[in-house]
Amino acid sequence: MKPITAVGLAGTGPTTPSRLPRHPVLGLRQNAAQFTLLVAVNALVGGMLGQERTVVPLLAESAFGLRAHTAGLTFIVAFGVAKAATNYLAGALADRYGRKPVLVVGWLIALPVPLLLIWAPSWAWVIAANVLLGVSQGLTWSTTVIMKIDLVGSARRGLAMGLNEAAGYGAVGLTALATGYLAQAYGLRPAPFLLGIAFAAVGLGLSGLVIRETREHAALEAATHQPRSDGRHDHLHADLSSREVLVHTSVREPALSAASQAGMVNNLGDGLAWGLFPVLFAGAGLSVGRIGLLAALYPAVWGLGQVVTGALSDRWGRKWLIAAGMWLQGIALALIALSNSFLPWALAAALLGAGTAMVYPTLLAAIGDVAHPSWRARAVGVYRLWRDGGFAVGAVMAGIIADAFGVRAAVWAVAAVTVVSGVVVAVRMYETRHPAAR
């Protein structure tokens, strides 16, 4: 695959910086209109995910009679595997064909998802819907991340990722809350999923009609890329093959590989929260409305908090914000395992959201710090492959432990793994924030 370089765009002829199309300029303020549109699009992407957070785990037992936790979590496994694989492809496809076509295709794939969930006569239909949802999320969310990194350059990368993830996960939380109340008032189907139909239609319209291609901005940054003065990235060249990008991001490069494992463990916990928290709360006798409130609180704090934490990572650096966030998540999960009522669970959900807010945009910013602009989209794809693979790993792990020892034991296990992941970051990751960009 031909990468984006200082002398050309993937799939085009030679292009010097002076001949870059439409004279792109890097910066958040300079690209405010397109950046804002991309924030709105990512909020719609998050809404597509949020329509499932409260309702689908409850449908597993009430509509389809699934009693075993492992069986009930198969929809998350399907989603996680599909999204993880598509994340990897999204980065490569965005380099080859451009960002906008990938974004539009992702929305086209999202269109039938709410309809399948409304009409599903069997659990197999729910799994099929989540395969499509995973593919769609992999294409749309990955591409909005890549496009925002393209636009802003290095100086405000943390803030850009904070705004992107805040929009997405804020919408996850608000939609989870809304669907919980819709389900309580009108039943589990079809009312909650009508929101998804509207989100998909608006997202496709915006992406097809008003979003512009950003690949030329990545070419501009590649043309003006400045290596670190400490020589830390001298071994990371502009012409890495896709296989080399995979190896560096997964294993070889300390910061990239530490970020990849932290991302996977973070979403391992999110898979647990998505699949088993509603079951745990329902078992304690909470109403569907209160379950929806708890399901919404965690991603809402996570989403809104990222505006602050993303900007802080631009000032303070990435490493210790990530490590501390992983440890805070572990503490919050332990509190959930220990609690038995709404208020302690609400506090724990807020702490879990705060810890995740410290980690989520900062990991993406760290990937952007280290990866050369010519292969950054592919590095983001590899990172998100590992990160969203955590959904599948978490669902399988949590389901097996919950069936054998109970839901609380599964929460304890994930809490322990999360704390260990923070230790790995503290030991292996170096500070990725370029001193010249502070």
From TrEMBL:
PANTHER family: INTEGRAL MEMBRANE TRANSPORT PROTEIN, RESISTANCE PROTEIN MDTM, PUTATIVE-RELATED-RELATED
InterPro entries for this protein: MFS, MFS_dom, MFS_trans_sf, MFS_Transporters, Sugar_transporter_CS
Location(s) in or outside the cell: Cell membrane
Protein's name according to its UniProt entry: MFS transporter
Molecular function GO terms recorded: transmembrane transporter activity
Topology class, membrane: Multi-pass membrane protein
A Pfam family reported for this protein in Swiss-Prot or TrEMBL: MFS_1
Domain (Major facilitator superfamily (MFS) profile) ranges: 35-433
Protein keywords: Cell membrane, Membrane, Transmembrane, Transmembrane helix, Transport
Primary localization: membrane
Transmembrane segments: 70-90, 102-119, 125-146, 166-187, 193-211, 271-289, 295-313, 320-339, 345-368, 389-405, 411-430
GO CC aspect terms: plasma membrane
Superkingdom of this protein's organism: Bacteria
